[in-house]
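Progress against Task 2.4 (sequence-to-structure conversion) is shown through the following example record, which the project officer requested during the mid-term review.
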Amino acid sequence: MTGFISFVSSGPGDPELLTVKAVKRLETAEVVLFDDLSAGPILDLVPPEADLIGVGKRAGRPSPRQDHVSRLLVDHARTGARVVRLKSGDSGIFGRLEEELVAVRAAGIPCEVIPGVTAASAAAAAAEIPLTRRLTARRVQYVTGHDVAGALPEDLNMAALADPTATTVVYMGRRTFPKLAARLMAAGLPGDTPVLLAEAVSTPDQRLSRHTVSSLSETEPDIASTAPALILYGPLAAQGCDE
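Structure tokens generated for the chain above:
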């Protein structure tokens, strides 16, 4: 007896940003393995009799091993259950989706991937700015701000990241941004390049603030904060609204 696994992207946190397909899978789920950032009101859509299993990973906190998460997915699906793997944002962007897909396929379990709104799109929408602009922001690039050890990755393509005509979005980079900023400016990115810092996007705790690459690098990060933060820099970051 084999069940079915739906990898559901929950978006940045606001349940109203879920896709229709995502809502349907949550409403019929029998087992839900969820990330920390996918908890809260989104889980209210799950039937009360469903099994809820928290498997979220957060920097600096004890987290389940990836192979353990994959094993849970396979074991529950083998009972014949409809399993939802609820992942924050879009599951294909810095979400370790591939490792779980490999395990599920190796076990011969059918699955599907349901895309969602990534934090970059949600932050731009909240600030009322586009991610691209003809002639001055022709390219968008996403990069992670930390490696498996929580440090700034050493193999970043600094020439690309210092491109002043690109919109660059740094995920999970609040604590490592001072080091990144120094490398960006050394690579030629002007220190006065506009920056949007977006925290807890689309939730009641959302906070948007404006900076420059230089000024944000000099701001002491709130190490006690648990709010997910995203940094967007480039020619469009100075536009739009603050909240």
